[in-house]
Amino acid sequence: MTQTDRTIRTVDDVLTLLDGLFSPGADRWTEGGAEWWDGFSADRDKPVPFFVAKPDENLVAYVEQGLLPAGGRALDLGCGPGRNALHLASAGFDVTAVDLSPTAIAWAEEPAAGAGVENVRFLCGDAFTAPLDGPYDLFYDSGCFHHLPPHRRVSYLARLDRVLAPGGHFALTAFAAGEGGLGSELPEVDFYRKGRLEGGLAYTDTSLRTIFTGPTETDLTEIELRRMRAQTADSPVFGESFLWTALFRH
Fold first, then answer.
1. DSSP of 153-209, one letter per residue?
2. Is 76 inside a domain boundary?
3. What's the total number of domains in the chain?
4. 212-246 pLDDT tens trace
5. Which secondary-structure segment (H or E) carries 109?
6. What's the domain range around 204?
7. CB burial string 113-132: b at 16+ within 10 A, e below
8. For the residues 112-141, what does the mean pLDDT come to?
9. CATH number of the domain where residue 64 is located
10. What is the value of pTM for the model shown?
11. Percentage of residues in the chain with pLDDT exceeding 70?
């Protein structure tokens, strides 16, 4: 392709162009970032909060409080070592668990096989091209959304609308802005200037409400949006206060 070729015709062409502004292997949860995430998941002994074999405290609470249906089909997007997928399977859901990293998928499959869990399927792929066979009664995202470049929210919302069943639930954990959290609070244009996501994007609660309950095709209703409740090391669930937790109904 020469410098004078003009090939952009569609929204997908624009999104692909913007993807190309990020360096190969940058910390993004889309095609091209698999190598970075494989390296991230390679050392299981790293002091990474999300590597614990515990489900998110908010997810456990949603199930225990009856905020989610008793079973059904669930998608765990960005499943990592599979901690939330296994909890959903134990709660009676038929689970499809997706992660970009082959190393993370192999890690997740080990405890599932060891426990004889049959109602979870692990799938290696990115957020937008993984072959999903929705509709799902629950779309759970614990840490994928905040690793997307800003322009890929368009793709995310479109896929969410396609795979979430009418009346289904969407639940999210994401980096919270302020109070020394892990996510970056840079202006969005700076991520494109730098060609990386600086470890993930931090969001305010107002931003999350605007994205997911604003006038978009997803038509989501907020049930709960709060800080994740911090947990002690001996707690049976995972919780860090630098994360938002949110639950919406379609």
1. HHHHHHHHHHHEEEEEEEEEEEEBSSTT-SSB---HHHHHHHTS-TT-B-B-HHHHH
2. yes
3. 1
4. 997 766 689 999 999 999 999 999 999 999 999 99
5. helix 102-114
6. 48-249
7. eeeebebbebbebbbbebeb
8. 91
9. 3.40.50.150
10. 0.91
11. 88
